[in-house]
Write a structure and sequence with these properties.
145 residues; single chain; 73% helix; 6 helices; mainly alpha; two-stranded parallel sheet
C-alpha cells in the first residue's frame, strides 16, 4: 500500500482513538491489515528504478500522506499525536527501506521485508489503486463522521 494511504489511515485512527496507549499499537497493527487488501504501490512487479528514484518516490509518497493527514485532521487532533500516529502507520515501510536502499539484508530490515512480502496482496493498476483509494476514503470519512 502507498505510504500516503498508511499515513491517512494513521491520521484517521488518531481521531478515532485519542488515547496513545491504544492508538499507537493500533496504528502499527493496521499497517499490516491494510497491506492485506489488494493494492498497488511503487514497487509492484519489481519495476527497475535507480535507488535515487526509489528514495524520491518513497519520500514524496510519505510526505504527501502526512501533508494530507495534517490538512484534514490538524484542527481535530493534537499535532504531536497526529504526526506520531501517521509515522507509526508507516513504520514497517521505514524499517524495510534500508533493505532496498542500502542492500541491508540483515535483521531487523530483512525480517520486516520478509513479513511484508508475505502479507502484501498486490494488484496492478488501475484496480490496485482504485481499491486503495476507496478503502482509505471510507476510513477517513468514517473518522470524520
Amino acid at each position: 500500500m502507498l505510504d500516503a494511504s498508511h499515513a491517512l489511515i494513521g491520521a484517521s485512527l488518531a481521531k478515532l482513538i485519542p488515547n496513545p496507549y491504544l492508538g499507537l499499537p493500533a496504528s502499527l497493527a493496521v499497517h499490516f491489515l491494510a497491506d492485506l487488501t489488494p493494492h498497488w504501490d511503487f514497487r509492484t512487479r519489481k519495476v527497475k528504478r535507480s535507488k535515487a528514484k526509489i528514495i524520491f518516490l518513497s519520500l514524496s509518497d510519505a510526505a504527501a500522506g502526512m501533508s494530507l493527514g495534517y490538512i484534514i485532521f490538524a484542527d481535530q487532533v493534537p499535532l504531536a499525536y497526529l504526526v506520531l500516529m501517521m509515522f507509526t502507520a508507516q513504520l514497517p515501510d521505514w524499517i524495510e527501506a534500508p533493505y532496498h536502499v542500502f542492500d541491508a539484508n540483515f535483521p531487523p530490515f530483512s525480517w520486516v521485508k520478509r513479513l511484508q512480502s508475505r502479507l502484501h496482496n498486490k494488484l496492478d493498476l488501475p484496480w490496485g489503486l482504485v481499491w486503495q483509494v476507496v478503502i482509505v476514503a471510507i476510513i477517513v470519512i468514517w473518522s470524520l463522521g
